[in-house]
Amino acid sequence: MRQNHEIDFRIFGEEMQCVEIELDPQETVMAESGAFMFMEEGIEMQTVFGDGSTGGGGGLMGKLLSAGKRVLTGESLFMTAFTNLGQGKSRVSFASPYPGKIIPMDLQQLGGKVICQKDAFLCAAKGVSIGINFQKKLGTGLFGGEGFIMEKLEGDGMAFVHAGGHILERELKPGEVLRIDTGCIVAYTKDVDFDVQFIGGIKNTFFGGEGVFFAVLRGPGKVWLQTLPISRLASRVIAYAPQNGGRREEGGLLGGLGNLLDGDGF
Predict the structure, then answer these.
(1) Residue 87 included in any domain
(2) Which of 29, 142, 146, 262 has the fewest CB atoms within 10 Å, i.e. is most exposed?
(3) Domain for residue 120, yes or no?
């Protein structure tokens, strides 16, 4: 028997996805602030302090600890609870914040715990705890790409995380090793060992363009990888952003003529 609320869902879209949650009467789904898209009649929304889980302790101190964990993982202090107060089934939908995929995770089938990158959480069944996972190894915390703190999802309900680009799932056998760009890790199950490895080689280090360290994941367990980390996307957007109030375009001469016609000069 599940301790968390049991919810049904459907995922729509390809590059800008949304997840539609079907709630039975009195069922609740918790969502990250700003993820809401629409809801049907009978559903009531309520802003709560922390993650709304029942395992974070009671009283004000328990709520403060829960909210504090969320701040450390890059999430907001508050979450929104959507509860079906009607007599029949009702649906509520949440949208992804940038191009990528929504990953459904049944924590009951994944050992009750998944560690994921900060700011990946989208929504989950009520009772799922969103906490912090400290990297115990110094090298992993300094060079692992995610810092010393990652996000931890615990419980036996459904949780949904979001990542950029296309998602690859790999099932690692005991002892199997996968070396990954540090920004491409989305999540992994609790038994996977996370470490870092120096790439090595002067040319690789200074001219390879892939950074100085690999992330090393060792099985057994399941790993989720993303093809487009948000940091990589942001760096490309910044590179093509207007410089000094001007407009950067391909084709210097034509771009300059376009700026002149717009009154911006060369």
Answers:
(1) yes
(2) 262
(3) yes
Say if strands 78-84 and 43-49 run parallel, antiparallel, or are unpaired.
antiparallel
Q: List pLDDT tens digits, range 24-69.
A: 999 999 998 889 999 999 999 998 876 666 544 455 555 556 555 5
Instruction: Determine the structural domain holding residue 45 and report its residue range.
Output: 8-241
- Residues pairing with 114 in the sheet: 153, 189
Task: Kindly report the pTM of this predicted structure.
Answer: 0.77
CATH number of the domain at 234, please. Answer: 3.60.160.10
Q: Which two tokens stand for residue 233?
A: 């996307």
259 lies in some domain: no
- Residues 152-165 have pLDDT tens digits of 999 999 999 999 99
Inside any domain, residue 118: yes
Q: How far apart are CA 96 and CA 37, in angstroms?
A: 10
Cα separation, 142 vs 212, in Å, equals 12
- Based on the structure, what is the number of domains in the chain? 1
CB 164 within 8 A of CB 229: yes
